[in-house]
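Late entry, written up from scratch paper. The run itself happened at the end of the previous shift, but nothing got recorded in the book at the time, so transcribing now.
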Amino acid sequence: MILYKKIRIIYDHNCHVALPAIVHSQFIHVKTQNTNNRRVRTPPSTMRPPQPPPPRPTSPPISSATVTKHISTSELPSTSSATPSDMWNYVWIPFLISLCKQVSSVKPSSDSAIVLPSGSVSRLPSTCPTTDSKLNFRPIIGILSHPGDGASGRLNNASNASYIAASYVKFVESAGARVIPLIYNEPPEILQNKLNLVNGVLFTGGWAKSGLYYEVVEGIFKQVLKKNDAGDHFPLLAICLGFELLTMIVSKNNKILEEYSASDQASTLQFITNIEGTVFQRFPGDLLAKLSTDCLVMQNHKYGISPQKFQENMNLCNFFKILTTSTDHDNKVYVSTVQSQRYPITAVQWHPEKNAFEWGLSMIPHSDDAVQVTQHFANFFVSEARKSLNRQPVRKVLDNLIYNYSPTFCGKAGKGYDEVYIFTENLARI
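Output as recorded:
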């Protein structure tokens, strides 16, 4: 067994790490030179007889360029004086050097190399296909304002005030559309002119179920049906209060709603029918499965309609099909998503916009899956609006966009909304 006298750490330029260098009686001279970055060993056949070491100076100079060590064979320790720790050092250090040399000699495989598209030899020429001329890639959505300021009068208590929560605007914009506010109490002719500028309509949540607001909702709903019957694909999305109002209008029964306990509640969606051709068709399969098991949608309502009562009304059954149901805090089941049998009209009792854009209620889900629900729903609605044939002059559109108004932060004064657009006067230039 060959024993080593001493171990010195030198820099191995192949491995790029500090490695133990082994000095052995057979190697009389070990030198590391900065000039050629390699280790030079004197062949055993040309070695001179060992010489006694020169006297050690009191203050030996240290050279960064050359490190030289002479060792006499007589200096080797005997095997009887070796400790177990020394023996381990003699075993693992040569192994470490050998392993490092093998690692440094390995070259990356061409299969694992990352090749950018521009670096591909056989890549196809880039093409920019023409867009479908039948689709409108600059869709406009009309959002109907709701009475009040969204904060129980804390922000604006004017009798003619109305508002749109900014989360609905962001919801639409996130899918690639712009918004024109449909101010519910502005002159009917202006409201009608604005309807002619948009490619779809959104009814928001709220509380108003009677008076002028109810009449305006009913009038717009009839306009949506009329536009679709005339051949224009004109979608309507009704959320929470919007769902309830459409239920009342279509059923022709203003007392059809029932009381539920679903305020500030995250819930699941239980699918009732085939989702083909519905808003959920575009959802990934794993997300659809999670909708049935995880609380990914936000409920915030006190009224709704049970599946039994819904099916008892022939007007509702003929117009809508039930897609999902949900349960409230008391485990009472209610209809949570419906879609028209003939028209691009979808109504939800829950709030798809809140997951990504509202923070005022404690139970709003904000997980990655919950935000995906918001995005997929918005994408569906805006993709339906792109099918609208309506094209209007750019100047008229710009004059009526919601960008002509400024949102108001109400996170401190409101009860659930972070920002709202408040309307107290007509700024339309139609």
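The chain has two domains: 6-45+65-101, 140-423.
(Scratch paper discarded after transcription.)
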